[in-house]
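Case study 2.
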Amino acid sequence: MDDKAGGSAQERRVKRGGRRAAVMVDVAKLAGVSYQTVSRVLHDSPHVRRDTRERVLDAIRQLDYRPSSVAQALVTGRSRTLGVVSFDTTLYGPASTLLGLEEAAHDAGYGVSIASLRSLSRAPVVEAVQRLCDQGADGVVVIAPQRSAVDALRHLTSDVPVVAVEGGPDDSVPVVAVDQHGGAVAATRHLLDLGHKTVWHIAGPTDWLEADQRIDGWRSALQAAGAEVPPLLRGDWSARSGYELASQLVRTAGATAVFVGNDQMALGLLRFLHENGRETPQDISIVGFDDIPEAAYFTPPLTTVRQDFSELGRRCLHILLDQIESGQRSAPRVVVEAELVMRKSTAVPKRR
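Prediction:
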């Protein structure tokens, strides 16, 4: 085949700025090296001499060469795509976790493919992970806030690089989670330190690991202070459930402080108290959890526990990339600290 035939084939490639986009052969020719040497430089191989590497990099800059992601995948066996199995992204926590993961992946030069499930039971999770791997994902993150997901994670094959966010089985897969227990302790202690004799708690649904960890933190803080542990109230994360449960608090003599499992339920509680002539924080102090963007604009602005979803995404990605590079799955549990954000929904209790 003559040069014209080769040239015409190259001319059919994607054009940039009205001219043919450079390919790896062009870089090799300009640098005076082989195609394989250019590939080694692109993949940061240590088996390239310094002066050769500099010639190749200079040629890449001169030609404005941009490696094809498809070509790189063929050479390295990696797609630079990560899979994410997610659940109920209408809720603030899972949605923010997903955003934090996408931002961290983008910063590391990875794309994200998402499988959104209605159920986190074993079969859907295992099938979703397998589907993402079949589509070429280098590794998979499972956002697993429910107990049902724990069993599913135990049944993933060991050759799949995987990290669970928020919940997971011990010694099976690595887990990255916000310190839900510590955040709940901080919220409860804040109210006790203001002088409230005890703190009520509106918790999330029974199947949610985060809800259980926040309950444990609330209860342990009360017990450590020698305070009475009031009956637990169960919501479903919605503002409506916070509104409906508020009537029980209003009917309870001496209820002056409430730690609410998330900011949406706290919003429902605030509305009910306002409609029934109870002022916050004068009559009842309230602390939420999440620090949703609207929390600072509630009436009054809500004291709450902030979760750092950006840091959660970065830690998760770091562990997953380590697995992809090493080909081995360790099982660390990494905890991201929660932060109490003080606003105007808490105060010392009124004297009675």
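The CA atoms of residues 104 and 318 lie 9 Å apart.
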